[in-house]
Amino acid sequence: MSEYSVTFQPQNKTARVKKGTTLLEATQKAQITINNICGGDGICGRCKMIVKKGRVYGEVSSKLTREEIQQGFVLACQTFIKNDLVIEIPEETWAKEKIIADEDAERFRDFEQVLLYKKEYIPSPLIAKIYLELEKPSLSNNNADQQRVCDTVRKKLKYRSTQMGLKIIKSLPKILREHDYRITATVGLRRDIAEIMNIEGGNTEDKNYMIVVDMGTTTIVAHLVDANSMRTIDAKACFNSQGIYGREVTGRMIAAERKGTAELQQLLIDDINRLIGGLAKDNKVNLKYITAIVCAGNTAMGHFLLGLPTQNIRRSPYIPTSVAPPPLRAAEVGIEINPRGLLYSLPGISGWVGSDITAGILATGINEKEELSMLIDIGTNGEIVIGNKEWLVSCSASAGPALEVINEECGMRAEKGAIEKVYVENREIKYKTIGDLPPRGICGSGIIDLVSVLLNEKLIDRSGKFIIPKERNSDRIQYFDGIRGFIIADSQQSQTRKPVFITEADIESVITAKAAIFAAMSILIGRLELDFLDIKHFYIAGAFGNYINIENSINIGLIPDLPRDRIEFVGNASIKGAKIVAFYKQAFYKVEKIRERTTYYDLMGANDYVEEFKKAMFLPHTDIEMFRRK
């Protein structure tokens, strides 16, 4: 089949693709991230591009105005390549750089230089490098080279058994004798067996690094850590390239069935490799000294990482292929670290509660507390755990992307220019943007604030419908495509010269998302014959959670009305827990026990879930007294 060249401006990147490829797929091949929510279904209208040169084909989208069509605009996901092209990507379509600038990445890093777990736990990284000065062979000590090395390693690291691959065994005679039996052994933990992964001449034990990764549906975060000092050296984040197939994992699983898992896997592996490469280059670390990668994420992301089929996760009875894969060679899935480096994919709980939650349980320590605790990770999926040292129960509620992005005009990710806070000052509704730049749109934390402010100012009723005020702000309520909306920033204030607004339809989406999460919490509390006030520790996890306002979240009914000193933001608990596992062998075994003793409760089998959901479809709830406990 013929191949054509597609050049994208202003990035000046070119991709070679086959005839009939969509422009959206071509941007992926050119490693350009664009705004796209619907996963290529043509319904969000965000992937607008301009054909500057060349021929394309496809249906004209109703998401384009007559003026845009005359100017050469097309939707990338609905437009197919016919010959060589030059394409212009408008600024509002381009999701900026693949690797987020340092100041933006801070929102996702949850950066800690040294992570201490427990005083009684001895630091013991999953991968250890130890310098050995072996006794030289003699007639009285004529052990084989392999036995000599293995015996010394077992004695020094107190392992009961070790294993060594054929490639390493073959290398022993030369390395031992050339370096006068002074060597460094790289030893990795494979469940109950220690593998001698590599033998180097001389002393290189000070050069031992690991990568710890949180594989988020929206954002992928990678930390470079020193395995010896347990110090976090650097961190980078990027938007998950799988977003081309939709913001929710369900859309990606459908795409994997249609196109094969390999394509979704490659997108994820490419993102991880770019982050690793950037971290290694910036910190002058040779990839051969990165000996392991520890990954956590939801169950679908864990499957994509390993190239496992996902189709049974989304179909009743929702069975994953694996929730506890063994350590394996990172090179097997294409991760570019030391060729013999190990990949640790942390264990999850079920098809819809993944290893990011087991890592979060470990990081918060709710599995060891006497008091009752609840952990909630707010994202496209709302994952919830409640329990203590005696028992743990989890569930998952699909919130969708409403708390992260809203309508096609104004919702955006947490990038520069996004409205992240909304507040009232001197009776005026005001906002703050990321980077203090003119607004381009509004992100999740700003959406929660805005809905809360509109409710407090009596501009919307408890169902989310606008009330026309008699005095202030009446001019800010206008119709957008026949739907009432509120202008938070007018066209003169915004970067795009278009107003930033929220509509009744957007507010309904927010209410639906928060209702799904709150109903899930209510069901768990009810099944256990508890009250929300029985919860002594309420942990909110996730990069998104770090930026939401507690009072506004309670005001709209997203989280329960608890004493404020019980509510704690724990940031990226997924990467914190994964890092603890990387540094402590005890935690490696403990996270598996967490998986085994956490019960998953499937809300699909809850007859009263719909009833609880309907109760929560108001601001803040039909039972308003639940949110007046101060």
User: Into which percentage range does the β-strand content fall?
Assistant: 25-35%
Q: Which radius of gyration do the C-alpha atoms yield?
A: 26 Å
The total count of strands amounts to: 29
Mean pLDDT: 90
Q: How far apart lie the N and C ends?
A: 68 Å
Number of DSSP helical runs = 15
* Alpha-beta content class: alpha/beta
What does this structure look like?
Helix 9 packs across helix 13 and helix 9 packs across helix 14. The N and C termini lie far apart (68 Å). Residues 97-105 have low confidence and may be disordered. Helix content is 27%, strand content 25%. The chain has 630 residues and is an alpha/beta fold. It is built from 15 helices and 29 strands. Strands 14-13-12-15-17-16 form a six-stranded mixed beta sheet, sandwiched between helices. A hairpin with a 2-residue loop joins strand 21 and strand 22 (428-433). The chain has four domains: 3-95, Beta-grasp domain (Ubiquitin-like (UB roll), Roll); 127-201, Roll (Ubiquitin-like (UB roll)), CATH 3.10.20; 213-223 and 243-345, Domain of unknown function (DUF4445) (Nucleotidyltransferase, domain 5); 368-630, no CATH class.
Walk me through the topology.
Blueprint: E1 3-9, E2 13-18, H1 23-29, E3 48-53, E4 56-57, H2 66-70, E5 73-75, E6 80-81, E7 85-88, H3 102-109, E8 127-133, H4 145-157, E9 162-164, H5 166-178, E10 182-190, E11 193-201, E12 209-215, E13 219-226, E14 231-239, H6 249-259, H7 261-282, E15 290-297, H8 299-306, E16 328-329, E17 342-345, H9 355-364, E18 373-377, E19 381-387, E20 392-398, E21 418-425, E22 428-433, E23 441-442, H10 444-456, E24 477-480, E25 483-489, E26 500-503, H11 504-527, E27 537-541, H12 550-555, E28 567-571, H13 573-583, H14 585-597, E29 598-600, H15 609-615
Parallel strand pairs: 1-7, 9-11, 12-15, 15-17, 18-27, 20-29, 21-23, 27-28
Antiparallel strand pairs: 1-2, 3-5, 3-7, 4-6, 8-10, 10-11, 12-13, 13-14, 16-17, 18-19, 19-20, 21-22, 24-25, 25-26
Helix pairs in contact: 6-7, 7-8, 9-13, 9-14, 11-15, 13-14
